[in-house]
Amino acid sequence: MGRNIVKLILQWLFAFGLLFILLLLPREMEMETGASGEFVSAHYTYSAEAHVENVKSFFIPLFNGEGLGTDRYDRPLLGQAWEMIQRSLWLIIPAFFVSILLGIAKGVFDFQTRHGKRRVAGLQTTWLGLSLPDLFFIIMIQMTMMYLNVHGIVTGLKLYTHETIEAVVMNVIYLSIFPMFYLANITYAALSAEQGADYIRTARAKGVPAFKLLYIHMLRNGLAKIFVHTNTVVLYLLSNLFVIEYLTQYRGAAYYFKEYVAASQRIVDGQSLMVDVGAIIAFTLFFTLMILFAGLISQVARTFLLPHERGSSG
Amino acid sequence: MNRHLATGSIMLIILLFITFLGPFLPMVDDSLTQQGARFTDAGIEVPPFPPSAQDPLGSDRDGRDVLSLLVAGSKETLLVIVTIVVIRFAVAAILGIGSYYSGLLKGFLSVWSQLFSFMPPVFFVIFFAGMPFIMFSEHRQLWLILAIALVEVGRTANMIRTSMIQSSKRPFFEAGIVTGCSNVTLFKAYFWPELRLMMLTSFVNDLGRTLFLIAQFAVIGVYLQNAFGSIRGGGVETMNNSFIWPSLLDNINQDVFSAEWVVLSTVGFITFTMVTFYLLSNGIRRFYEERYQQSI
Fold this sequence. Notes:
Chain A is mostly helical and 314 residues long. Chain A has twelve helices and four strands, in the order αββαααααααααββαα. In chain A, a hairpin with a 5-residue loop joins strand 1 and strand 2.
């Protein structure tokens, strides 16, 4: 286990380092304009000296204890970035647990109802959830909420903000939809794979009740296979976070990451507007760290759950 | 009866019909005329117009018929997603199959997929789109298509590699080695049949997933196609200039309140296409599984 953890941390360092260096690429461009000042084309030439200078000027305030510098209103970027990251954490952490718990529960339900008519509520809904984009569900929920609001059934909810509890709850629901169905599918597959195993036959022959068999024996062994996928779940959550924060105007890390990067799509007077590189780096650090944690959780969970890894000291 | 394959095929035919014959349909306005205001008996109407006999799916904020926009964009949409997935599978096939034979490629694939495992796809593409050498490049569209293709190459290549390793552990593969097959024959007769099925089903499945990914980018305002517009006073900014389906989600935050037909039709088209590919992919797998079992 220890070796795998060190390996994971080294991979993270490499990935973050690469992103870090790319972010600090010099951004000066040569613009070609027409007779009336209209845009014709822009050329980018890379200069290694400017790049080194960028890296240096990033580290100088950091070592002087000034954090990541300030934004264009002279507010410290570090504090701001941390506040937005906290907002995003309020979505990611609950969504992570909700999708794991509900996903496993749904998978177990699908497994129990795999025969007969009840599979319409079990396997078929999971299939639907996997084939339809979650954007479809989100828009349906949003429109239902609006319908309820217009008809005076549910009113007074503030959903397009980061400041209210109801907005956080709705966003957690939106975020968990796809990972939940994804895990339900994995859980179902893991349980089906255990189905024919020798130890199940032995347990059944000894008269272990079906309930105990499913929850104590099969799920426990299946969990190892399920926890391999926590990595993927976090990747889905983070990827979707960008869409959902944008769709609901939730001002978290993903929302501002996109805003800050997109600011560079405007050039005024030959100068790129991408000035908040410090904050972008802080967000990048945050996103990659979340993935690192997910990898570590997955690694530790496997070590404790997988029978053949449980015994090894490595 | 293979219901998945049958339904998927019918839906694919409908999709292809809309794409290639749609522009000739009577209710589709091929020139995408913009309309400012309409004078009706009730008074003056301004766009976006709700669905009516004139605009079956309503109109957007410029008064353009949504159905016509969707039909006009379908060819480009399909072209973009097919290009992305073809590039992805071409690179993944070289890496995946190559890594089975070459230690160097194996190492490269491992570093590659670990690197990308730290970058959620949407994050990576936003990041990449903001790179200075991409932003105002004339080939921006190609760059972004390449980025979306490459972000999942590691996953696909690993899938190919895993399939080959699994095949090589089967008894029939050992039999092939014992009878003295060359590497080429081994690949053609022992690896390829299973690999082909796996690649075909995930290729079709990936078409749907890629469409969804592009739709997600449109929601947050990252476009594949960009035009450059001058800002008054000397400057430039990038804007969207294509009719690809997801670009209709451009204004989703306002449309969802006041012009919900734009959002619903676009998401409806995207959902229909995704379900088509999902059904086809499952159907193809079942088709081969059934045939394989019958032949034993």
